[in-house]
Amino acid sequence: MKNNIGVVVIIIGVLHSLLGFVKHSGVFGGMLSNGLLNTGNTIERNLAFWFTFAGITFMLLGYLIKYIESQKLAVPITFGWLLLGAAVVGVVILPISGFWALFLPAILIIYQAKSGSLAAVDRKLG
Question: What range defines the domain where residue 110 resides?
């Protein structure tokens, strides 16, 4: 699994966005029927938008990680630790949530960086 961390993050993003569209389909329908422009003006609509958009952000991040891996580089270990910290905080605050999914890429990033199987980006940038 040493070169598939980006794919894991992309899958998490796709699933998050799909869940957002399914879970909030009524909200998005209302936004579309109102013309979409400036329709995120309620808490419910903001929640639906940001929940779904978070998945899109993870897809973008996954593609960036995939690119780093394609260059035979390891994702910086600092990023792995920060992602792990975000997962812990998220699980503490919202234990019944998707924050649990962040543990997998965080641990894989840390493991990959510590194993030295790929060149470390941290050292290449410094």
Answer: 5-125
Structure tokens at 67: 């690119």
pLDDT digits 0-9 by tens, 31-57: 888 887 877 788 888 888 898 999 999
**How many domains are contained in the chain?**
1
Cα 126 from chain centroid (whole Å): 26
Length of the chain: 126
Single-letter code of the amino acid located at 84:
L
Q: Which residues pair with 120 in a beta bridge?
A: 74
Q: 42-61 b/e with 16+ CB inside 10 Å = b?
A: eeebeebbebbebbeebbeb
The C-alpha R_g of the chain, in whole angstroms, comes to: 17
